[in-house]
Amino acid sequence: MVRTIKITDLLDKSQFGQYQDELIHYFERGGTWQDLLHYDDNVLQTQYQKGYELYHKADYKNAAAAFSYLTLLNPYNYNFWMGLGIAKQSERLYEEAIVSYTAAEAMDPEHPLPHLHLAQCYYALTLREKAVEQLQKAVSLAGESVEYNEVRLKAATILQHLPK
To answer: pTM for the whole thing?
Structure first.
């Protein structure tokens, strides 16, 4: 763990240099800003809830900003990446949403939901083959799981109705 660093030290160029090597080593070992700044999970959960509320108010730009901040603080959280992806997709920023969904998939490779959303983004970008591939992956990962029943049904329905 990096020694306690004050944010003001990182904002001051003359102070930042003394921490640079230590920070590089810390982040290379998988350290997060969340840990470095001593934010507990409740702080991030509160921010996540705000992003969620902004999204449901159709304030996609600010929701994306909230989720983007969360992915900066802890890039290893599936929900933060999914929130960012959904906000970006709602803004029709499909390429940016694809990046977020790909990160979410890396955080939880067995979850089918990122693949459903990836398919929607690829289809919007007229990349039909990639969309079909992602839909098939969503169906496969969902399997017979009751938990993923909705994702499986949506993906299978879209596959059935895609124009040939």
So the answer is: 0.87
